[in-house]
Structures are given as C-alpha cells and as structure tokens.
Amino acid sequence: MDNLMKNNRIIYIDMLRIISILAVIILHITADLLTRTNDFNTIAWWISNVLNSIARFAVPVFFMISGAMILRTEVTSYREFYKKRILPLAIPLVSWSLIYDAYNQYFILKSNLTILQFFTDFVYRLIIDRNYIHLWFLYAIIAIYVTVPLVSRLVKACSEKELRYYLILWFAISIVYRFISDMVFRVASESIYVPILNIPLFMGYLGYFILGYYLFHYELPAKVKSLLFNIGVVSFFVTPIATYFASFYSGVLDEMFYGNYSITTFFMAVGLFLYFQEKNCILGEKLNYKIQRLIGSMAKASFSIYLIHLLVELTISRRVESEGSAPETVFTLLLNLGMVFVISYIVVKILNLNKFVTRVLFGGRG
After folding, report:
1. Strands in the chain per DSSP E
2. Are the CB atoms for 118 and 102 separated by under 8 Å?
3. How crowded is residue 152: how many other Cβ atoms within 10 Å of its Cβ?
4. Which listed residue, of 37, 111, 252, 348, carries a Cα 20 to 30 Å from 82's Cα?
C-alpha cells in the first residue's frame, strides 16, 4: 500500500489526527450545555447532542493511530525507548497539570492557597489524575507505552489469525459485555458480573491500540470492510437518538452511548479509520504538495493542540444558550470550534519557535 506522502508522512493518518482533534474540541464545547440542562427537547440540546455524539470516535481513533505507528517500530533499548517515547509524554503531563491546576485554583476558584499548600495539593492531584479533565489521556497512553517493548514483540510474533482472535475476544469482553451490562443495569437496576470474563489483557484501551496496528498492516476482505463501514455510518445516526431516549428515561444526561467502549463509538471509530485508509491514494493524488504540507503541519501539532485547547476554550469561547435557536446555536458552536482550533494551532506554532518551551510544554513535538 502506498501510504506515504513526499515528506514521508502518511496522509490518511494525518487526516485522522486532524479530524480527531477537531472532534475532541467539539466534545468539550458541547459538553457545557449538555451537562447544564436536563431539557432534552430544546433545539440547542439536540444540536449539541448530535455534534457530541458524532465526535465520539476521537479518543479511540487516537489510540488506534498510536498503535498503528508505534507498534511497527523495533524496540532495541528500553532506556532509549523511555527517553524517546515516554519522557516526551511525562514532561508535558507535569507541565500542563501545573498550568491547568494553577489556572483552576487562582483564576476560576479564586483560591487563597499558599504556594506550599498549592504544590502539596498539586502533587497529590497529579498522582491520582485529578488536575484537569482531558489530561487523563496522557495517563492512559503512558501506561500503554510502558507495555510497548513487550506488546510490540507479541504482535509481531502473532499471525494475522492470532491477532484477529485477540481482537474478537477483546471486542466481546470490552465492548459487547460492557454494552449488555450497561443495558441490564438501566433496565433492571442490577449489575451483572461474570468473573470468567475478567481477563486483564483483553480489557481496556490496549485493544484499540492493537486494533490500529492490525488495520494498518492487514487488508480486510472487501465484504468485511463494507460491513464495518456501514455499521459505522448507522452508528453515527443511532448514537444521538439512543442518547436522547436513554437520557429521557433516566431524567439526566445518560452517557452510555457516549463512552469510549460504547458499541456505537467502536463502530464509528473503525468505520472512519477504514474510510480514510481506503481514500489514502486518492487524497495523495488530489491534494497538491502545499496542502499536504499544511495537513502534515496541523497533524504534527495535534498532540500540542490537545494539551492547550481547553485553556484557549476557557479564555475565548462563547456560551451556548439552552433556549437558543438552531442558527444561533450552530453559529456559536462552529465559531467556538473554529476559534479554539485556529488560535490553539497558531499559539502552538509560536511556542514551537523556542526549543526549550517546545520540550517542556509539548515533549518536543510540533
């Protein structure tokens, strides 16, 4: 498969990075209204619900991209791997945890904590992942990266059939079993627990990580790809409708279909990944070199944008009114999306002019 652009970047992976970071921003700018009101019949709520629902693929796709890219590398030195892959994640985690914690304490909560009290609380919140909502992703990806020296050997030693077996079992436990458990709890208010399905290696984000590697390296049969893509398209429509009925039934926002392990989220992520993978050659042919360079630049900045975008959003985004009209709501949300993304990208590029700042804030990424 001809995956590479002229600058050795993979265009469909770059496109997925950009679309996913835009989706993350959508998740956060719509979350305010969705959690602020329980009136599920307003136009503003429905628009926010639809946008939030269709953006839910973002986090799984980021894990899939990471798996596709990092598991293909050969880990020859644990020390070099930690220095090159994990340290550039750990440093920004501490830096941005400090920035967001200070902003929250002194600008939002108007706290009177002394410097000593602040740092004592900060260290505690850093350890237990309680500094800011979106930084959980760094904890999760660092945890997975720690396993990469072993997992990369494992996936390379496995045949396609063996990897497929792993993914099917992971899907059954992490996606299907969780879906059935959630449904039973909502209908019967009873939790179900099947001890035999408590298999750690087949639970969690590692499955998305290995799924990305599998889809990147192995060509699925046309019928399977078509089926997965079509289920993904249906899931884009089902998620907001299912969320409405689940929320209406419970009286508060029900995020069952919003979750990263939701069955609809899974198929949306896989369908989107396969769609852009299929369009890779066409994208390479139709996009001129300057556009491809811009795409590469924005994709390289996606991690940095992820870190900084909530700070930008807190500073410049406009509040969406719960009783707003459709044009007003759409305009405000799209304006917030555009401003947060563009300003975040520009600020990242400016900060990248200083190598020390780039290393401290973004782990050396641009």
Report:
1. none
2. yes
3. 19
4. 348
Q: What is the mean pLDDT of residues 275-293?
A: 90
Distance of CA 34 to the CA centre of its chain: 19
**Helix, strand or coil, per DSSP, at residue 277:** helix
The whole model's pTM is what?
0.93
- What is the C-alpha R_g of the chain? 21
SS3 at position 61: helix
DSSP symbol at 84: I
Cβ of 341: how many Cβ atoms within 10 Å?
20
Question: pLDDT tens digit string along 302-339?
Answer: 999 999 999 999 999 888 888 889 999 999 999 999 99
Count the Cβ atoms, other than its own, within 10 Å of residue 307: 26
What does the alpha-carbon distance between residue 205 and residue 54 come to, in Å, rounded to a whole number? Answer: 20
Write the DSSP assignment of 172-212 as a string of letters. IIIIIIHHHHHHHHHHHS-----GGG--GGGSSTHHHHHHH
143-152, 196-205, 243-252: least confidently modelled range? 196-205
Tokens of 77: 């030195």
Each domain of the chain, given as residue ranges in start order, spans 11-362
* Helix, strand, or coil (residue 262): coil
Q: Kindly tell me the sign of the dihedral angle through the C-alpha atoms of 56, 97, 312, 329.
A: positive
